[in-house]
Write a structure and sequence with these properties.
The chain is an alpha/beta fold. It has 11 helices and 15 strands. The chain folds into 3 domains: 82 residues, Arc Repressor Mutant, subunit A (Orthogonal Bundle), CATH 1.10.10; 102 residues, Periplasmic binding protein-like II (D-Maltodextrin-Binding Protein, domain 2); 101 residues, 3-Layer(aba) Sandwich (D-Maltodextrin-Binding Protein, domain 2), CATH 3.40.190.10. A hairpin with a 4-residue loop joins strand 1 and strand 2. The longest helix is centred in the N-terminal third of the chain and has 25 residues. The chain is elongated, with a radius of gyration of 24 Å.
């Protein structure tokens, strides 16, 4: 039995909550997961997990083993980084979670460059628009657009992302162009459910004063790119992140509505768990993000 693999297996089972999920996270068979757990229990003459047909739960011995295993794994990574030296390429798997549209439009095109810079890293990009339990999902770094609420994570601010109100030229030709924020009540608007403001849109006018409008909407979506496509099809006026809309605005497929108004900026963050030691692969990715996305609103 490889002791380090066994330690990683226990950690994976605890954090994912099942042998099956742990096998998927580690890319090994469920049988091998069971074998590692059984060999550790036999070696220490303890039971790590209470098993039923429906779930598993940690025993007191299992909890103690898990917390010590985290420290051992962290110290191993410290040792490897120090032994190999800062001049060498970081190694291992890097699992990154990102919002779907940001990942597809902005991040994906930069990943090959990151992999060329660090060829010994196995990169796994996971795209979703919901909150992620980083430990359970085995996520090393989470990218988020918006507010950071989880104080158990370290959040590095990378840049700011603005939102833009936009519509298709055809829609504006038939329905008219809003002259001020209040005019939006006469239009069909499409709501991005990724944000808490819903139908209440807050923007700042050219004098820097905040204005609020309650828009009419019977259409909402949790994908900025899907909203852009709906707006391009003449479905109404959208309020989406700049990275989702800027390509269509530059091509003329969309027109920015109320360009004198500006949105409150959203933060672009990279997040990772609080630890005494941050692995080189995570540090390298954070630095890469800072280099590539320090001016988000100018990209597209």
């Amino acid at each position: 039995m490889d002791s380090l693999d066994a330690i990683k297996t226990v950690i994976a089972v605890v954090e994912t909550g099942s042998f099956t999920a742990a096998s998927q996270r580690l890319n090994i068979s469920k049988a091998l997961v069971s074998k590692y757990i059984g060999e550790i229990e036999k070696q220490f003459d303890v039971r790590l997990f209470n098993r039923t047909t429906r779930k598993i739960s940690l025993t007191e011995s299992g909890s103690n083993y898990y917390h010590h295993a985290l420290q051992v794994l962290e110290r191993y990574e410290v040792m490897m980084d120090h032994v190999v030296g800062e001049q060498s390429s970081p190694k291992g798997s890097l699992r990154v979670s990102a919002p779907v549209t940001f990942g597809e439009i902005w991040l994906a095109e930069h990943i090959p460059e990151f992999c060329q810079l660090y060829p010994d890293i196995q990169f796994d990009l996971v795209l979703n628009n919901h909150a992620v339990d980083m430990l359970q999902a085995g996520i090393d770094v989470r990218i988020k657009v918006g507010n950071v609420e989880d104080s158990t994570l370290i959040a590095r601010h990378i840049s700011d992302v603005s939102r833009v109100i936009c519509a298709s030229p055809a829609y504006l030709n038939t329905q008219g162009t809003p002259k001020n924020l209040a005019d939006l009540v006469a239009h069909t608007c499409i709501v991005d459910t990724n944000f808490n403001d819903g139908k209440t849109w807050e923007l700042y006018n050219s004098q820097g004063q905040k204005e609020v409008v309650e828009v009419f909407s019977d259409l909402s979506c949790n994908s900025p790119q899907a909203i852009v496509n709906m707006v391009k099809a003449g479905g109404g006026i959208g309020y989406v992140t700049m990275h989702a809309a800027i390509g269509a605005i530059r091509s003329g497929e969309l027109v920015e509505v109320l360009p004198d108004y500006r949105s409150q900026n959203l933060g672009l963050y990279v997040m990772y768990p609080h630890r005494k030691y941050v692995s080189r692969k995570v540090r390298c990715f954070v630095e890469f993000m800072q280099q590539k996305f320090k001016n988000c609103n100018n990209q597209g």
